[in-house]
Each structure stands twice: as structure tokens, then as C-alpha cells.
Amino acid sequence: MRTTVREAFLAVRGECSPDIIIADPDLNQQFVRECQARGLSSTPSVLNQCLLNLRKSSDLQGIKSKRVSVKHPEDYRFASEIAVRFLERRDQVSLDQILCDPVRAAEFDTIAASLESVR
């Protein structure tokens, strides 16, 4: 599975890092479809976790990605931190599990956006 996930990532990444592929809903859908086209039937969460593990274990070493930066990250830090802590405690999951599960990631976005509007 690791080899197929790596190949699928390389096929869809452009210049994006694994983290961007996982975090961007549109890119993530492309990645999951590419994995499925290559014969993998695992859930998006499992495929994303495998990709994240490839990055963490340096199995993607040497692959250069375009650097992405967020303007004014302090504008998002508070809402993001609260949303992550809420989901971690409520669901007993890690940040990686939140990011790798498209349903939880979408819920995270919704919670963070609602908190940002309050602030």
C-alpha cells in the first residue's frame, strides 16, 4: 500500500507537500481518487494517514515542495487551537486523525470558522 500511496501522491501533487494534499479538500479528493484508480480500496482517512506516515518516516525525502505560508497566522491561531482541542477531547482523537479524516477536517473548519466570527 505504501508504494501505491507514494505513486498516487507523486501523480497529483504538482509542487504541493503531503501536508497540503491532506489539508486541501479538493487536492485530497484528487489524491484519494488516484489511490482508488490504482486499486486501493482503503478509506480516505487510512490513505491520508499512510501519506502522512510516509512523510514522517522520510520515505518522501528528496521530493521538493513549494513552500506555502499563511499571511497573518495569528488571525487563525486562537480559533484553530480551540477547534482542535474540542475535537481531541470530544472524540478522543489526535490532531493527525482530525487532519487525515475528511469528515473531521470539515468539522474542524466549521468549528474554527464559527469561533473566528465570534472573536
Describe, in plain words, how this protein is organized in 3D.
The protein folds into two domains: 2-56, no CATH class; 74-118. It has helices at residues 2-12, 18-23, 25-37, 44-56, 74-91, 95-100, 102-118. The model has no long low-confidence stretch (mean pLDDT 93). By secondary structure, it is mainly α. Helix 1 (2-12) packs across helix 3 and helix 5 crosses helix 7 (102-118). The longest helix is centred in the last third of the chain and has 18 residues, at 74-91.
Mean pLDDT: 93
Derived from helix and strand composition plus strand pairing, the structural class reads mainly alpha
Q: How many domains comprise the coordinates?
A: 2
The major sheet is characterized as: none
Q: Sketch the topology as an H/E string, one letter per element.
A: HHHHHHH
Cα distance spanning the termini: 43 Å
Spans of at least 5 consecutive residues with low confidence: none
Shape: globular
Number of strands: 0
> What's the Cα radius of gyration?
15 Å
Overall helicity = over 70%
Helical stretch tally: 7
Beta-strand content bin: under 5%
Descriptive keywords:
2 domains; mainly alpha; single chain; 119 residues
The gist of it:
By secondary structure, the chain is mainly α.
Give a topology summary.
Elements: H1 2-12, H2 18-23, H3 25-37, H4 44-56, H5 74-91, H6 95-100, H7 102-118
